[in-house]
Amino acid sequence: MRASRPRRALAGALAFVAATATSCATLPSNTEPHVLRSFEPESATAPVIAPKPGSDPDLLLRDFFAASAVPTSNYEAARSFLTPQAGEVWQPTETTLVVDRLSINTVAGGTGGRRSFSVQGNVIGEIQPGGVFNPNRAIYDATMELEQVDGEWRISSLPSGVVIERTEMRNKYQPHSLYFYGSNASELVADRRWIYAERDSLTSDLLSMLIDGPSERIRPAVRFDLPAEAAYVGYEKGAYNFTGFGSVSEENRMRFAAQVVWVLSQAGTSGPISITTDGDPLIAGIDSFTTDDFADVSPLSDAAGEKSTYSLSNGSLFRLGGGETAPVDGKLGQGGTIASVDVSNSGNYAAVLGKEGDQAFELGTLGGAAQEVMRGKNFTRPTFEADRSAAWVAEDGKRIVRAVRSAATGEVVSSEVALELPEGVEGNISVLRLSRTGARVAMVIDGHLYTGIVSVSGTGARSVVNVMEYAPDLGGSVIAADWNPDGSLLVGTSAEGSPVVRVEQDGSSTTTLSSGNLTAPVVAVASSAGMYYATDANGTLQLPATGAPDNSNWREVPGLQGVRAVPIVAR
Predict the structure, then answer these.
(1) Full domain range(s) for residue 466
(2) What whole-number distance in Å separates Cα of residue 209 and Cα of residue 212?
(3) CATH number of the CATH domain containing 103
(4) What is d(CA 465, CA 419) in angstroms, rounded to the nearest whole number?
(5) Phi, psi at residue 252, to the nearest 5°?
(6) Lowest CB count within 10 Å: 69, 99, 457, 466, which one?
(7) Number of domains, the chain
(8) pTM for the full model?
(9) pLDDT 10s digits, 206-232
(10) What is each CA distance from 53 to 57, 76, 113, 153, in whole angstroms?
(11) Are residues 234 and 141 part of one domain?
């Protein structure tokens, strides 16, 4: 932070920053002042997209759908493919359907100057107002009519709404993250948004969306404390200006500064960020902020540096390092009874002990004391919450249990986590993994991948809500899943053609990783900032997470050559 007053006058404010810091980002300084409230796409200089002279009707339709990915000027480019009458009545809806690809076929019975076409595609999701992508499964099926106008084909009848192919979404839109505080006010939770790329108002769009609040799906897991009258009013005189902050406390102002700084930094703006509200500095005596001021809540913290890596084999836990393995201290390193385990960087662990049919779930510290939480027939691998003091398991594939150690007494107490699954989903949970922030949870249910949002009530009770299926194209082949440091998911499957895949945080796409020498099924996965790990039918392998060609071979993990183990990256 840069002070506009003597350092002594800022001592209290600096101490306050250290205690309440959050996230940061930056913005370019050439945006003209303008008033913004709700996120509404602004005009931008878009590439010229227009019907090609002499285009055949089926090709004109394909070009129309490509033009539909350009939302500027009320879809002016797409309207140029319509007859004047159709252009007046066509209504682009606020939600854009995204399909994998479109099949366009002629309907029999057309004439020389009129044609009808059947347009079909598999819906994979939708871009909702504010750039929110929600995965969805449906069939798009429409009939469109074309006629010749002055010798050129134009669309004369079509349903309302915007439909684009997945490739056009990738080509014309870019994902950016907003950040909101989690329910514990100590973590920044990403809220991914898709924004049209060919525009010059990115920072204005992001700040307008930020001040409008989180998306509906993530809202139960985050805090949003700004009043309804709060608004972004543009960039002027070197500062990002907001209004309506009169009732906002200093604590929440500091949190808001962190959100702004991290949002802008991830959008490509570097340098000190000046923020004003109602004509005055956001925090009295502080004229600018940087990401360093809010490093303790960095949304990139999990992606920085390598974490401690372990392996579970033959019921014992080993630490990996320097190309060698060594058993951890205490019973976990020599007992041979561990069925599954999760480990934190602080040395806490949560483990399931014993064979299926009679298992114990316990919390403890490596080389130290442990306490049994409960016994049952079968538990999933435990997973830690953000503060690593509480862990979750699914018992017998149905009931999610949360166990937390009291900071005051040291005793462990457990409670059930309510789970709201989509209608018709009634299978068994075989994998349960909380994200780094604890705001999201990934589940594998009968071979399908689901993600949900963790809601925390005023009494501290947890529930999993807004559950959606991701990567439905994987069918029932999913075996393993865990969160990558960047918030995406790493998934292991039984499919020979896609044994390991990456699924984006919002479910917008699935990418098959190099599979040249992997042998399905992949039964365990893990990742650090620089490495993917997978246990296939033969052994435990690794692949660089960045810079590896698509055809790179996975290699045995040093220290685990010839060993089929479960890789574990401490969080």
Answers:
(1) 303-569
(2) 5
(3) 3.10.450.540
(4) 7
(5) -70, -30
(6) 457
(7) 3
(8) 0.89
(9) 999 999 999 999 999 999 999 999 999
(10) 11, 18, 16, 9
(11) no
